[in-house]
Design goal:
The chain has 76 residues and is mainly α. The chain has one domain (5-75). It contains four helices and no strands.
């Protein structure tokens, strides 16, 4: 049965991203009441390995984001 991604929280995704093996991910999913197969877990981990941030997200990670209610022109 496919995972209902609408029920996934940011916290759940953050925990899943820390898993290094399919078995770790399966165990984590089980604690959240989600059943996944080894193939599904391996597929998810492979997706994480190939994940790339878009330029907007990358700017925020690199410190280019503005935390207050400011305009981009103020920084130029």
């Amino acid at each position: 049965m496919p995972i209902d991604k609408t029920k996934m929280t940011k916290e759940m995704l953050a925990k899943a991203a820390k898993c290094e093996t399919a078995d770790e991910l399966i165990a984590l999913a089980k604690t959240e009441g989600i059943e996944i197969t080894k193939a599904e877990a391996e597929s998810y981990l492979a997706e994480l390995d190939n994940f790339e941030l878009d330029s907007k997200a990358l700017d925020k990670v690199a410190g280019g984001g503005c935390y207050s209610d400011c305009k981009a022109e103020a920084w130029l």
